[in-house]
Amino acid sequence: MSSHALEKESPDEPAAINRLAADPASRRRFLKMLGGGAAATASFGLLLSACGSDEGDSDGGDGGVEISEGPDPAAPSAPPPEPAADVDIVNYALTLEYVEADFYAAVIERGPFSGKQLDLLKVIGDHELQHVEALFNTVGALGGTPAARPRTRFKLGSASAVAGLAATVENLGASAYLGQAGNIQSKEVLAAALAIHTVEARHAAALNRLTGRPPTPQGAFAKPATMAQVLPQVMPFIVS
Amino acid sequence: MLESKLAAPELAAVEVHGMTRAAFIMRSALAAGSVYGLHTVGPFVSQALAQDSAGDIEILNFALTLEFLESDFYRSASGLSGEAAALATRFGDEEAEHVDALTAAIRGLGGKPVGKPQTSFPGGGQGAFLKLAQTLEDTGVSAYNGAAPKIVSKEVLAAAGSIVQIEARHAATIRLLNGEDPAPVAFDRTLTEEQVLRAAGPFIEA
Known about the structure:
The complex is a heterodimer.
Chain A: H1 2-9, H2 15-21, H3 24-31, H4 37-42, H5 85-110, H6 115-141, H7 159-180, H8 187-210, H9 227-234
Helix pairs in contact in A: 2-6, 2-8, 5-6, 5-7, 6-8, 7-8
Chain B: H1 9-12, E1 15-17, H2 21-36, H3 41-48, H4 53-75, H5 82-108, E2 118-120, H6 125-147, H7 154-177, H8 193-200
Antiparallel strand pairs in B: 1-2
Helix pairs in contact in B: 2-3, 2-4, 3-6, 3-8, 4-5, 4-6, 5-7, 6-7
């Protein structure tokens, strides 16, 4: 019962996002780290046993990546001095969630499902809509412009083909979030991304079971995917 | 009885013994989860852990304690059949791999891995086992998500992310076996700082 009382007070989106909206200091923190995300990406696939091998390099400060404190005055079209990394990552996630939400809307409207399977897809689709809303608001809280909603197109075939596509999309989504965790500068954005990451993983496991795949196809350690790996797989669904 | 007022009474029946700080945090996290609900575990853990490179070792030792607990739990399974039996074996093996990886990571950072705590779990057939499995896996997700933003090293964060995704997949699969939604909410962590302090306060050392 006591947990119920707590849940009632909980907002529908992570509190981290609300805090971010009210905290200009966390937005300013991005400025000094502009461009620093690339060093982390290279080592992101390393598993635990590699932890000791590059001590002293863990903050990406000397990985050969140039970190500029602001626009180069000599460059005529220097980028505006606003946070890039986290906004870009959240917009990337927003775009993926837009595609996922559209996919489930199409499946629910004209897919070959009924009963319990349809119920599961509705639950998942509703989560993706909540992710869209939360990420959209996060971009705004970071002072950025939310990515435009893409126009999407999905070919829906047999039930097993559609369920298989759903499983593929969710497994990809989970690895996409995992691939960005180390690039996120703000603790608040990281907490929100992690809260979504594990829900994508739950969706993936559920759809894997529906389609007769193992719950953990990569074994005991999930693999991250970079933007360069993820986007080509999503582009076929985006019309414009 | 008092038990009927607990949010997750099955969690209160799990025992973790050991004098390490990680074991203490684990016991307290289980207590917070049993009294206030599983969604309080992550915020509690976040509050309890320090944030610096020594903190990374502490976080890994906490995670190791959790994985010891889960690994022991699946190993304690008996009398399961069908999909439940197959999953308990698979998930138990994966938790054991997490134990090995976390142990290696702590050594890699120059830390000392905590010892395996003594654990005990309530008995009671396949239904009770799956119910507790669900609670422990959901607790694991919340604990990792609560600890992760405190991690300083990118490599340690990558490893924790790689493991928590597996915990989430375990949780979802077991929930389906129990006839429940694989993902009960759209965000696996949803409390405000104020709610965290109110929920976890009694369990945090001053």
